[in-house]
Amino acid sequence: MAALLEGLRVVEISSFVAAPLGGMTLAQLGADVVRVDPIGGSADLGRWPLAPSGTSLMWTGMNKGKRSVTADFRSPEGRDAVTRLAADAGIVLTNAVGRGWLGYESLAGARPDLIHLQIQGHHDGTAAVDYTVNAEIGFPLVTGPAEHAGTVSHVLPAWDVACGLYAAVGLLAAERRRARTGEGAQIKLPLYDVALATAGNLGFLAEAQLGRERPRIGNHLFGGFGRDFTLSDGARVMVVALTRRHFTDLCRATGLTATVTELERLLGADFGTDGDRYRHRETLASLVEPWFAARSLADAEAAFAGTSVLFAPYKRFSEIDLEGAPLMGEIDQPGVGRLRAPASPLDTGDRSHAPAPRLGEHTTDVFAALGLDTAALRAKGVVG
Question: Which of 10, 94, 296, 369 is spaced 20 to 30 A from 185 at the CA atom?
Fold first, then answer.
């Protein structure tokens, strides 16, 4: 079966997370994605975490399945080679700043129906990264325990991840239109706008506009019942009851049905609704907490087996069962060695597990296919 995006070519000129993730999302679905870096690599080539060899595990993680070329961005011949590559592919994904020759206006001169997606910090072009955007958008001030006075920045670069996925969708939408109409596209994707849109779509901005300030509630689930609990063996679990059925099953499994029913009567509450479960979350949690404290993780898993209760233990990355996950496949990653790495989470029935390339690994093949004399260019230091 042919890969979903077989025949699609994309030139990616990028670094760090958002743009590389967008390109990798397409590559793992079969697109020919060529990442272009300056000779010696971009600023993310050595980004932590590192393998014992010093190879960046983030760089290799974000560039699986791509081809890699390097060129001298400062020389006219190097710029011409990259421009010819972009024109040949017809689709460019970039987060490069301060390089006008990589902009839409310049590259579209070489191919009028060019699709060009530029990831940037803010809509006005000013710089931003995930961690500064997160500070601007409000989430660190509603994350953490209620008594915490400072900010809590999340370790997951959520806006970079969302931005990369938006980039992939944007390029595919533009390519679909070009296939129908022959028109190219200039697309700008500000990282801040990704975060702003997400905060709006989840109701955080509407809530603020209506005069309500979201409180810090620790690990409680906002607007429902859910919280972490500690077990007798020291394990911690997250338990969530999103629906009436979830909550009913939780009460039945913990032997608290009669107690909770009486509490419901005394409070004049309806624990079948999200709102009342949330309003009385501390009281409900105090009833459930001793049950968990008296049981091991194995006991709790047995009690919830066959129920609808949403329940999971907290794990470290090193505790995840990679062998049993169909998403994960073994690759031989240059500079790292053999390890298990994810394919696309979109299961098309034909998952491919490909490593990231060595920096510049495909320079000769890619530029030679354009009719360029790569030996001469390499001798002059124009390409890597």
Answer: 369
Residue 160 annotated as catalytic = yes
Quick one: what percent of the chain has pLDDT higher than 90? Answer: 97
Distance CA 218, CA 168 (A): 34
Coil, helix or strand at residue 113: coil
> Whose CA is closest to 325, among 335, 333, 315?
315
The whole-number average pLDDT for the span 284-313 is 97
**How many of the other CB atoms lie within 10 Å of CB of 303?**
19
pLDDT-derived band of residue 352, with 50, 70 and 90 as boundaries? confident
Q: Is the pLDDT of residue 96 over 80?
A: yes
The CA distance from 221 to 84, in Å, is: 52
- What is the Cα–Cα distance from 186 to 292, expressed in whole angstroms? 55
pLDDT band at residue 145 under the 50/70/90 scheme: very high
pLDDT band for 2, please (50, 70, 90 cuts). Answer: confident
pTM for this one?
Answer: 0.96
| Long-range contacts, 125-134 (Cβ 8 Å, 24+) | 125/97, 127/97, 128/190, 128/191, 128/192, 129/16, 129/160, 129/191, 130/17, 130/18, 130/157, 130/158, 130/159, 130/160, 130/191, 131/157, 133/159, 133/191, 133/192, 133/195, 134/158, 134/159, 134/195
**Domain segments of the chain as ranges:** 9-200+323-379, 236-313
Instruction: For residues 23 and 174, give the distance between their C-alpha atoms in angstroms, rounded to a whole number.
Output: 15
Q: How many CB atoms lie within 10 A of CB 130?
A: 23
Task: Catalytic residue, from 37, 72, 130, 160: name it.
Answer: 160
